[in-house]
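Minutes, project check-in
Item: structure for the 272-residue chain
Input as provided by the requester:
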Amino acid sequence: MSPCLPDAAADIMARDLLSKDDVDGAMTIGQRKVGTAGWAIASAQADLFLGQGTHLERYARRFNAVEINSSFYRPHRRTTYQRWAASVPADFRFSVKLPKAVTHDHRLVDCDDLVSRFVEDVRGLGDKLGAVLVQLPPSLAFAQDLLPLMERLHDALGISVLCEPRHVSWFAPRVEATLAEMGIGRVAADPSPAPGADRPGGGGRIAYFRLHGAPRTYWSRYERAALEAWSAAAMAEIAKDQETWVIFDNTAAGFAPENALELQALFQQMNV
């Protein structure tokens, strides 16, 4: 059951809700993307997403990016991706999570058919496909033969590919240099699985923050001080001329949309 809206979210509602033009104008400055993992709207948060339409259409009036996590568990048809792409504004972007069958079952090897199907399906998003997310199992140590699959995705789709490793071996300087040379990005994750994992790394044009909730992963709400710290970290990437994504994945208790709106408000106060 979704919790009552916290004071910070209530403050957002107490002010006039941002108009569509206000949201678009603010979020296209500074190459920043703010959103959540998935776009389900809980009934307790319906007033944050006013208007008619599907959940995705209403979500896209407030945010300019979303991470598709359901693709991790099951494939979606190309026509489904096409329908989603048609329902959002021109500047909206999707990141799509690579299927678990590839990352966890096959552990990035011997899965050409699965990758080919994924590539063909996500092409349905057209130019609204912004990135592919490759989340790796915690037990998967770095090995050179794991990288060709990510390079294949990058070459086939022509968009940024970002990995989220969770084994400490991926955070060695030599691995960082290899990812940078290949143009494969490394996600900044919270909670951090290793020292330095809370800042983006690797290469490519996107700096991607995945905020899972801390201290309790998926459940905890980010309070004001934490959001200010993450906004400063994102600003540092924007200053490097990186397209910067901040995705909230603390969805278990419904805090992700509220935190994303609060982060947007911080960016707007900084005129970003």
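Outcome recorded: The domain at 7-269 is CATH 3.20.20.410 (TIM Barrel).
No further action items on this chain.
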